[in-house]
Amino acid sequence: MDLTSALRTTGAVRRFTAEAVDRVTIAAILDDARFAPSGGNRQPWRVAVVEDPLLRRQLAAMMRPVWDEYLAAAATGQTPFNTVAFEPPATVPSGQPNELLDHIDDIAAVLVVAADLRRIALMDGRLDRAPITGGASVYPFCWSVLLAARARGLGGVMTTFLSRVEPAAVAFLGLPPDHALAATIFLGRPEHQPTRLRREEVATFTTVDRFDGGVFSS
Ligand SMILES: Cc1cc2nc3c(=O)[nH]c(=O)nc-3n(C[C@H](O)[C@H](O)[C@H](O)COP(=O)(O)O)c2cc1C
Questions:
Q1: Other beta carbons within 10 Å of 153
Q2: Which protein residue has the closest C-alpha to ligand 1 atom 21?
Q3: What was the pLDDT predicted at 123?
Q4: CB 100 within 8 A of CB 185
Q5: Is 159 in the pocket of ligand 1 (CB under 6 A)?
Q6: What is the pLDDT of residues 83-96, one digit of tens each?
Q7: What is the pLDDT of residue 23?
Q8: pLDDT in tens, 22-71
Q9: How far is residue 117 from each of residues 9, 121, 167, measured CA to CA in Å?
Q10: Ligand 1, pocket-test mutation among 66, 79, 158, most atoms within 8 A of CB
């Protein structure tokens, strides 16, 4: 597959066949992904390949209430957990189904990606809003993991729900001080690889010179 096709057709996969993915393949995926860019090339990512079924279940149990809250908040029309104007939902039905969490035992690979905060120059860390630039040193790596998996006929999805309960996860994962949980990536052989992705057109998000400028068009 050429690069442009891969960029345009790598949809999130949350249902997998029972096929295992061996360590050699996971290592090869990570070996490709390590070429991702990061601020100052400081490569702050750390990866825990979670194989222990009990630990997987413990992580799923931590993520479940986050998923429940996400769904309840989304149902009110909000972007859940946004830092600008988020109203926690009045009620949160618990134990909502989730393809990933329900089947975490069976998913071929579960990778928890952390970031070493000592290696991240947080350019917007002093502004009066939630910082955003730090993630840019680790999420390209996560996306490269997904592309490298796709190159091998595998698929998956990056998730961030574990970050919301990071303090609870620290001891389970042996997360070192000054590290942050960035993502949990689920990988496997897709039951179906979505390739027709719904994305906004360029003209809806691109303007000339200024963000209040005219629509950029070719
Ligand atoms: C930063 C980030 C966080 C995400 N968190 C979750 C998550 O917690 N759970 C989940 O199921 N998917 C998660 N996703 C996957 C998105 O839902 C998915 O990329 C998006 O809906 C587009 O899906 P598509 O590629 O199939 O069109 C996340 C993706 C990104 C990039």
A1: 11
A2: 12
A3: 98
A4: no
A5: yes
A6: 999 999 999 999 99
A7: 98
A8: 999 999 999 999 999 999 999 999 999 999 999 999 999 999 999 999 99
A9: 32, 8, 15
A10: 158
Residue with CA closest to ligand 1 atom 10: 159
pLDDT of 190-203, one tens digit each?
999 999 999 999 99
Helix, strand, coil % (nearest 5) of the chain?
40, 15, 50
User: 18-35: b or e for each residue (b if 16 or more CB lie within 10 Å)?
Assistant: eeebeeebbeebbeebee
CB distance 197 to ligand 1 below 6 Å: yes
Protein residue whose Cα sits closest to atom 18 of ligand 1: 12
pLDDT tens digit sequence for 113-130: 999 999 999 999 999 999
Q: Tell me, in angstroms, the distance from the centre of ligand 1 to residue 40's CA.
A: 27
Tell me how far apart the alpha carbons of residues 95 and 19 are, in angstroms, rounded to a whole number: 27
